[in-house]
Amino acid sequence: MNFQPALNNEEISDTTLDVTETLLVTKKSLHCELVAYMIEREFSTPTRIIEDISIIPPDNHDKLRFIMIDSSMHSFEHVLKHLIPRGSNAQPADLLAVFNLNYGTGVEKVAIGKHIKGFFYANDSLNMLMKGIEVIFKGQIWISRDILTECALNSFKIKRYLIQNQTNLSQRELEILTLVSMGAKNEEIAEKTFISLNTVKTHLYNIYKKINVTNRLQAALWAAKNL
C-alpha cells in the first residue's frame, strides 16, 4: 500500500509537538523493547511498555503523551472504552495510534473519525514505523492514501444520502445541482446528462422548490455549502 502522511499542505510542518512520554500498550517482548528503545533514542521521548490498557493514567491536558496500542491485543472497541472521551466529536488529549493491524479489517474508517493519528501494520518495517511516528509528532496523520481516499468517498456518499433524505432531491436533481454549482449552463447540463433543454429547466424548477431558493446563484451557493 502507498503509505504517506495525510496532509493539508504538500509539505510536512517543521514544527514538532512537545511529546512528554510514549506508551506502548502491548506485551513485553524483545521486539517491543527494541521499538521502545528506538523511539526513545530517535525522538528523545521517555518510552515505556504497558501491558494493560486499563491501567493507563487519565489524560492530562498539560502534558502530551503518544500512546501506541497493539491491535492484536485490544479490539478497537476496547480502545474506545478506555482512551477516547465520550461523544462522537470528542478529541483525546493524547496522540493515539494503533499498530500490528491486519489489512482489510476496515478499522481505519472508524478510527480516523475518532481522532486516531496513526495506523501501522504487522509487516511494517522499523524504518516505516519511525517515519510514521515522526509525521505524527509533527501534528499530521499517518495513513495510507488509498484508505484516506476511500474514507473521504464513503463520507461523501453518506452526506449525499442524508441530503437526499432531507430535501427529497432525486439522483438526477443532485447531478444537475452539482453541475450548476460548477458553473454549467443549461445547454451544457443537457449535453452532459443526455436530456433535453426543457427537461433541464423542469428539473431546475423542482430543485429550487425543494431547497427553498429562487434563482441559479442561490442554488449554486446552497450546493457549495451543502454538497
Give your account of this protein's structure.
This protein is an alpha/beta fold and 227 residues long. It has helices at 30-43, 76-83, 107-111, 126-137, 145-167, 171-181, 186-193, 197-211, 216-226; strands at 3-6, 19-25, 47-50, 64-70, 95-101, 118-121, 141-144. Strand 4, helix 2 and strand 5 (95-101) form a beta-alpha-beta unit. It starts with a strand and ends with a helix. The model is unreliable at 2-12 (pLDDT under 50).
Uncertain ranges: 2-12
pLDDT average, as an integer?
84
Approximate helicity band: 40-55%
Beta strand %: 15-25%
Radius of gyration from the alpha-carbon trace, in angstroms: 23 Å
* Basic shape: elongated
For the secondary structure, the number of strands is 7
Helix and strand element order: EEHEEHEHEHEHHHHH
End-to-end CA span: 30 Å
Largest sheet: 5 strands, parallel
What is the helix tally? 9
Strand order of the largest sheet: 3-2-4-5-6
Structural class label = alpha/beta
Overview features:
about 230 residues; alpha/beta; two-stranded antiparallel ribbon; about 45% helix; elongated
Q: How are the SSEs placed, and which strands pair?
A:
Layout: E1 3-6, E2 19-25, H1 30-43, E3 47-50, E4 64-70, H2 76-83, E5 95-101, H3 107-111, E6 118-121, H4 126-137, E7 141-144, H5 145-167, H6 171-181, H7 186-193, H8 197-211, H9 216-226
Parallel strand pairs: 2-3, 2-4, 4-5, 5-6
Antiparallel strand pairs: 1-7
